[in-house]
Amino acid sequence: MNIDTQKYRQSLLEEKARLETELSGISVQNPHDPGEWDAKPENETEEADLNVAADIHEEVEERHGVSDELEKELRDVNAALTRIEDETYGICSVCGGAIEEDRLLANPAAATCTAHMG
After folding, report:
1. Cα angle for residues 108, 99, 72 (degrees, 5° grid)
2. DSSP for the chain, written as a single string
3. pTM for the whole thing?
4. d(Cα 38, Cα 11) in Å, to the nearest integer?
5. What confidence tens digit (pLDDT) does each residue in 39-85 have?
6. Rounded to whole angstroms, how far apart are CA atoms 98 and 3?
7. What does the pLDDT look like over 83-104, one tens digit per residue?
């Protein structure tokens, strides 16, 4: 299978930039582990009011859920970029067969063919 990896690389780099922008709006990158992002409150305050503190905690938990999903997507994109560099892009990680072009067009970070997508 002859894949135009340059086209997919560009798409993946654009997706990576979008994900990092979204993550930076709700999270801060962990300086000790750049692959990890920690949710941050929208409005940081030092108020001692327990209701305010509870609201902030709840908000951070919600942001953490969104952040986790964005982190997973970013890991998938980075893994796909690595596969391009390793010249294994477009090869199913389960069966070793070709990943269908339609699947890659729909999800350039796909690591499996449609038969093995999970």
Report:
1. 40
2. ----HHHHHHHHHHHHHHHHHHHHHHEEE-TT-TT-EEE--SS------HHHHHHHHHHHHHHHHHHHHHHHHHHHHHHHHHHHHTT-TTB-TTT--BPPHHHHHH-TT--S-GGG--
3. 0.76
4. 26
5. 666 555 555 566 666 665 566 566 667 788 999 999 999 999 999 99
6. 10
7. 999 999 999 999 999 999 999 9
